[in-house]
Amino acid sequence: EDVMQIILNVKGLAVKSYVDDEKVVELDVEGPAEITAGDILTDSDIEIVNPDHYLFTIAEGHSLKATMTVAKDRGYVPAEGNKKDDAPVGTLAVDSIYTPVKKVNYQVEPARVGSNDGFDKLTIEIMTNGTIIPEDALGLSARVLIEHLNLFTDLTEVAKATEVMKETE
């Protein structure tokens, strides 16, 4: 593989950090071997969720020592945002994609509760990379949405005073 392909493979890592601080993980390998995410040396603060993820093949007589920085964040950070002024020569800054949710589907169907058929049933299907469970992803995304939309509820007294949720028996 060329460097670009290896970088793309590294970006496919699913890494879970149990601490808020940045952590450094290491890769120290010798050929011949197929190198996977499971070959990355971590401590108890970092979990490689997809250890079978292929990174690259290293030929006989060759070796590689590399370090990677693991951080927690949200959304997308371009490579420029990951560059550090004090980084050693030869450091490759890579963009970071902090999006554990890979795909979401939803379906709304009519539903009956007792003799009343005026309800809807919402089914949500969430697929993640394994660094977060779907229930937590849904809860976190709902919380983010609520916080963003709360900005609008303070605009008028009518919005504040209106009851929107009905109690069902």
UniProtKB/TrEMBL annotation:
GO terms for biological process: DNA-templated transcription. Residues 1-155 form the DNA-directed RNA polymerase RpoA/D/Rpb3-type domain. GO terms for cellular component: cytoplasm; DNA-directed RNA polymerase complex. SMART domains: RPOLD. It catalyses: RNA(n) + a ribonucleoside 5'-triphosphate = RNA(n+1) + diphosphate. SUPFAM superfamilies: Insert subdomain of RNA polymerase alpha subunit, RBP11-like subunits of RNA polymerase. Keywords: DNA-directed RNA polymerase, Nucleotidyltransferase, Transcription, Transferase. Its EC number is 2.7.7.6. It is an enzyme of class 2 (transferase). GO terms for molecular function: DNA-directed RNA polymerase activity; protein dimerization activity. InterPro entries: DNA-dir_RNA_pol_insert, DNA-dir_RNA_pol_RpoA/D/Rpb3, RBP11-like, RNApol_insert_sf. Belongs to the RNA polymerase alpha chain family. This is DNA-directed RNA polymerase subunit alpha. It comes from Streptococcus urinalis.
